[in-house]
Amino acid sequence: MAQVTLSDIRKSYGSVNVIHGVDLGINDGEFVVLVGPSGCGKSTLLRMIAGLETITGGTLDIGGRIVNNLDPKDRDIAMVFQSYALYPHMTVATNMGFSLEHRGGSKAEITERVNWAAGILGLEALLDRYPRQLSGGQRQRVAMGRAIVRNPQVFLFDEPLSNLDAKLRVVMRGEIKSLHQKLKTTTVYVTHDQVEAMTMADRIVVLNGGRVEQIGAPLNLYDRPANRFVAGFIGSPSMNFLEGTITSHGFATAGATLPLPDSAQSHVGRPVIFGIRPEHLQLDPAGVPAEVLLVEPMGAETQVTMRLGNTQVIGVFRERVALSPGSVITVMPDAAAIHLFNADGGQRLE
């Protein structure tokens, strides 16, 4: 296990800058998730940690060593790829032990390490099979086993669940988190799926356009997003946004006026973006009228798309409400859960 420190890390391809000075300290044994939309630079950043991409500027420290110019094999890391990258002509046991064999490990040591990893991952009965005889989830466990037999200082995961179906992703998500709790190895995990990030991470790093937007514990990012981008990216369904102005009577948007906490009165006259998460819109007879556009019963909850004023928003209600498109309901935002952002730049308004 080791600390990983990125100091002003930059990456460019010729004149095109893709990573713009990332600073990040990852604690020993921490599970950190890099998340963001496609093209934000998260996989490039991971590949620079792995040594698969050169670093244009800044320093990368793993376990107290500056590793900018070290080959991947000398960094004491192990990476699990999206595509599994298993050798098709090798058995599960041989795939898992290959890196140890390549490093000159004895047969007894390799067998011991492979059996240990197989026991952790539930692969004991599959050691003599070939990759073609395995399901997607089994192949991913083999890829994880191949990484952990090396007992590296750092695990790197590059969107390892994106090839799996939705149900299996949930199962594997739990298995990876359980594996981390057992081994306590420093882990850096890349995903575009913010649900994965929220459920797995000790801390989340939200990237956008090669820059860090916010770093924090999952619920801190959810409850206090630093800006509109983070607020809209973290959470599913995403946060609702309405444009308008703070007045002495509340938040005025086209076609509606919404209540605001008392603390907002110091900003009267200011144009802002009003944010409210779908689950924080409540059915209330004294609320604001909204026209129902779409009703999606989810079992434990009902998701309703509606038009509030001139803006389309989503509400998630615990009640099993009987609604139909075209009907009008009255909703009230939870005053304690309202987020306000600057209209110019989208930064959080304190």
Write a structural description.
The protein has helices at 42-50, 92-102, 107-121, 136-148, 166-183, 194-200, 218-223, 228-233, and strands spanning 4-13, 16-26, 31-35, 57-62, 65-66, 77-80, 154-158, 186-191, 203-208, 211-216, 240-247, 250-253, 256-258, 271-276, 281-297, 302-308, 311-317, 328-333, 339-342. It contains eight helices and 19 strands. It has 350 residues and is α+β, with helices and mostly antiparallel strands. The longest helix is centred in the middle third of the chain and has 18 residues, at 166-183. It starts with a strand and ends in an 8-residue tail after the last strand. The strands form four sheets. The chain has a six-stranded mixed beta sheet, sandwiched between helices. Strands 13-12-11-14-19 form a five-stranded antiparallel beta sheet.
Which secondary structure elements does this structure contain, and how are they paired or packed?
Layout: E1 4-13, E2 16-26, E3 31-35, H1 42-50, E4 57-62, E5 65-66, E6 77-80, H2 92-102, H3 107-121, H4 136-148, E7 154-158, H5 166-183, E8 186-191, H6 194-200, E9 203-208, E10 211-216, H7 218-223, H8 228-233, E11 240-247, E12 250-253, E13 256-258, E14 271-276, E15 281-297, E16 302-308, E17 311-317, E18 328-333, E19 339-342
Parallel strand pairs: 3-8, 3-9, 6-7, 7-8
Antiparallel strand pairs: 1-2, 1-4, 4-5, 9-10, 11-12, 11-14, 12-13, 14-19, 15-16, 15-18, 16-17
Round the mean pLDDT to the nearest integer and report it: 93
**Radius of gyration, CA atoms, in whole angstroms:** 24 Å
Give the helix tally: 8
Structural class designation: alpha+beta
3D shape: elongated
The helix-strand sequence is: EEEHEEEHHHEHEHEEHHEEEEEEEEE
Strand order of the largest sheet: 6-7-8-3-9-10
How many strands appear in the DSSP assignment?
Answer: 19
Distance between the termini: 38 Å
